[in-house]
């Protein structure tokens, strides 16, 4: 068995090796729950949902019967599967289209500054960072290319209160007693031992949201806006986020469009006369769906964070999204751990692919070294 920490993007090599080995499909299983979540049809480029509300209930019931605990209550559920799929491979057109339209309008304004002296920027709410909406939109089809602009042309604004809200959620970690409770309830003891000192699910998702802001800083034109400290009262914090953005819009003479998934927060935007777009995702998953290959990688990554460990059954390998020793820097670099069984049909090929990728990265690092 081989264990390697790799970039999230290396999961594309995993999928490609499955295709090269002529696998018709890959079953994605939750290691913690011992539950098949999805089937990836590599022939028809479709995803089939295998686990619904009933399947999650049936998987969680015997685990919870071993005794109540906060760690057991924190185990992933159907909602974690639903949101991971909707936020990636199923990114709805009704969510992305209004934002793409506004981005197109912003590019038109930028090309004619005399006619449009006030430039346009997009401010994201905390929940939009959790959705990782902007970074996934940048991968979604060819919409950006058809509009003729680069991600760096998009101005994104983040309030310091949004970052503070996310940071506050990176708190509770699994203790020794939590690990003991999970070992009593979960079959895969190796995975559970590796969860020592990692964050609870809320914290893992917050680290992923923090990563979204870091990625936007590298790919878009990211501005940070100050405000007061976050309050324990969510409505007060939401109002302060919107107030600080409206004030920044007036001071800098720019149009800011606030993007949120919270209709109550949008009401605050109305009161401060700040234009906004409300993002709403459907509540249920379809049984089958097409997928974009790169958004498939994003889905596997999000699922590995929420579910801690996934198994690609037919390939006999595991994708571990968090483990004891994974740092915040590893999160920002979107690292996962691949555990490849020695009997895996693609074990040798994946190690070869990884060696090639690492060699190319080292060449890139050498090019960045200044020459005398």
Topology as H/E string?
Answer: EHEEEHHHHEHHHEHHHHEHEHEEHEEHEH
> What summary fits the major beta sheet?
8 strands, antiparallel
Biggest sheet: strand arrangement: 1-13-12-11-2-3-4-10
- Poorly predicted regions are 365-372
Described by the principal axes of the CA atoms, the overall outline is globular
Give the integer mean of the pLDDT values: 90
Class from secondary-structure proportions: alpha/beta
**Rg, please?**
22 Å
- Give the proportion of residues in helices: 40-55%
- The total strand number stands at 13
How much beta, percentage-wise? 15-25%
How large is the count of helical segments?
Answer: 17
Cα distance spanning the termini: 44 Å
Write the layout of secondary structure elements.
Layout: E1 2-7, H1 11-20, E2 25-30, E3 35-41, E4 46-49, H2 53-64, H3 70-73, H4 78-86, H5 93-111, E5 120-124, H6 126-131, H7 133-137, H8 143-147, E6 155-159, H9 160-168, H10 176-185, H11 189-193, H12 201-219, E7 221-225, H13 234-251, E8 255-260, H14 263-271, E9 276-278, E10 288-290, H15 293-307, E11 309-312, E12 317-320, H16 328-332, E13 335-340, H17 347-367
Parallel strand pairs: 5-6, 5-8, 6-7, 8-9
Antiparallel strand pairs: 1-13, 2-3, 2-11, 3-4, 4-10, 11-12, 12-13
What would your notes on this structure say?
By secondary structure, the protein is α/β, with parallel strands linked by helices. It is built from 17 helices and 13 strands. It has helices at 11-20, 53-64, 70-73, 78-86, 93-111, 126-131, 133-137, 143-147, 160-168, 176-185, 189-193, 201-219, 234-251, 263-271, 293-307, 328-332, 347-367, and strands at 2-7, 25-30, 35-41, 46-49, 120-124, 155-159, 221-225, 255-260, 276-278, 288-290, 309-312, 317-320, 335-340. The strands form 2 sheets. Strands 1-13-12-11-2-3-4-10 form an 8-stranded antiparallel sheet. A 5-stranded parallel sheet has the order 7-6-5-8-9, with helices on both faces. Helix 4 (78-86) runs antiparallel to helix 15 (293-307), helix 12 packs antiparallel against helix 15 and helix 13 crosses helix 14 (263-271). It is globular, with a radius of gyration of 22 Å. Mean pLDDT is 90; it is low at 365-372.
